[in-house]
Amino acid sequence: MCYLIAKRFNGHGCIALQINFGKDLTYLSDYLTSRTVGHGIQIVTINKTEGYPEYKPYDIIDNEREFINKVLEMVE
Fold this sequence. Notes:
This protein has two helices and four strands. The longest helix has 14 residues, at 23-36. It has a four-stranded mixed beta sheet with strand order 3-1-2-4, with helices on one face. The N and C termini lie far apart (30 Å). A hairpin with a 5-residue loop joins strand 1 (2-8) and strand 2. 34% of the residues lie in helices and 30% in strands.
């Protein structure tokens, strides 16, 4: 398991989705990156939340669809 993170470059905190490594993660990361490029939003994958204090606080979203919607709302 890992976390897919969406964060505004100069913002405080992030939203996160716990997800398995694999094709779904790759597709989702690529899709969100393509939709957010040029909008000051960083899409990254991390192993553990404890090792990355620069992304705190974490708003962990349990639902993939909700995570996607929240990331796309960041663009607007």
